[in-house]
Amino acid sequence: MAGLYKGLRATTLAGQTGKVRRTQVVNYIMKQGTTTGCTLGIIASFYSCIALGVTWLRDKEDTANTFIAAATTGVIYKSTAGLRSIGLGAAVGLTLAGVYTLVTDNDNIWSKARYNRL
């Protein structure tokens, strides 16, 4: 979507029409898709390696590993952008880990309420 938006905006400002505009928009979409894919791949690699390391160090496999790995991934990914960005990266990681845990963990309060096991 970001590539589509950037492509439409740039081609409109440049006054392009027809086939040239279509080609430029497709180029913007492909370039943005590649960039986003690489970024998500790096974040996934960080998270996987950190989660594996935390599991190995703690010798446990529980939801705390998910939260630790997600927060650490956010910190490392944003580590070159300053302290405020580091905190924001950790907060985003913790939020995503919380949502993931609520959706996938069968032993949380939401799943117990859904199946009337409270």
UniProtKB/TrEMBL annotation:
Gene Ontology CC annotations of this record: TIM23 mitochondrial import inner membrane translocase complex
Record-linked InterPro entries: Tim23-like
Keyword Magnesium: no
Gene Ontology annotations of biological process type: protein import into mitochondrial matrix
Subcellular location: Membrane
Membrane topology: Multi-pass membrane protein
Keywords: Membrane, Transmembrane, Transmembrane helix
Molecular function GO labels: protein transmembrane transporter activity
Main subcellular location of this protein, as a coarse class: membrane
Pfam families found in the cross-reference section: Tim17
Name under which the protein is recorded: Mitochondrial import inner membrane translocase subunit Tim23
